[in-house]
Amino acid sequence: MFKFLTKLDYLLKETFLGLLRGGWMNWAAVSTVTVLLFLFGLSLQTSWQVEKLLNQFGSQLEVSVYLDTDTRAQTLETSVAQMPDVVHIQTITKEQAWTKLVRELGISDIDNATQQLGENPLVDEMKVKARNPQVVPNLATQLAKLPGVETVQYIDEAVKRIAQLHRGLNWITVTITSILTLTAIAVTTTTIRLIVLARRREIEIMQLVGATSAWIYLPFILQGITFGLLGGAIAWSLISVIQQFISRMLTNQPEFIQFITNGLQLTPGQILFLPLMLLSFGAGVGLIGSLFAVRRLVKKI
User: Fold this and answer.
1) For the whole prediction, is pTM greater than 0.90?
2) 8 A C-beta contact, residue 34 and residue 234
């Protein structure tokens, strides 16, 4: 146990000394990783928020089913309710629709208005709420095939636009993340390589006294991982500050804005997963960059 603690103390001291000796190159590596993880975190969070907003709009999306003149909504309610993609049904009888219409037109004598037309010209309507926006077209097709259904209408243009935005953001996230990941790995590799070269004499002495390559270069690998962890912590801090600022800006806004804001709230699992993802991603980038640097220099020294 004592031997293990001694080795651990040596590795931590060497790692800390290496970070102190790196100077501005350390800051270059950390800042590059921070930019990478900040943009990655924002993109990932935005993707989650758009997806949740998409599902929220989908849950609000209603399919209007207009029945034939001789068909009553009660006869189809059971069949519609049994469909797996249906979460809610609201029935509007033609009497209710007619009463609402004449009142909106400012007509006080509903019976007289009905007698003048001979009969109620409207039909029963069913407002069917879908489980999510993806199933709406298929649900509308199923509803249109039911006996007694005359017309099925739904407005999905806004949902389609949001879905396209979601796919576009995913592609942008992948592209930006790939480019910045390569950049961060390259900067980390260069930084670790310069630190190793600055301590070349010490490394040669350690090799002469019999130290293994793994023991010599492990502190440099830990430095690379530290770069990634620091970048992840800073990126998460910046994202948290932005979230709090936006939340304050959206306070006491109109109802529609509040609806959008609720759709942008992350789940507890996502709130916990995001910083862990940033730290893990940063540590991975630092590890890969330091391994590249050490691998090259092991062959030269």
Assistant:
1) no
2) yes
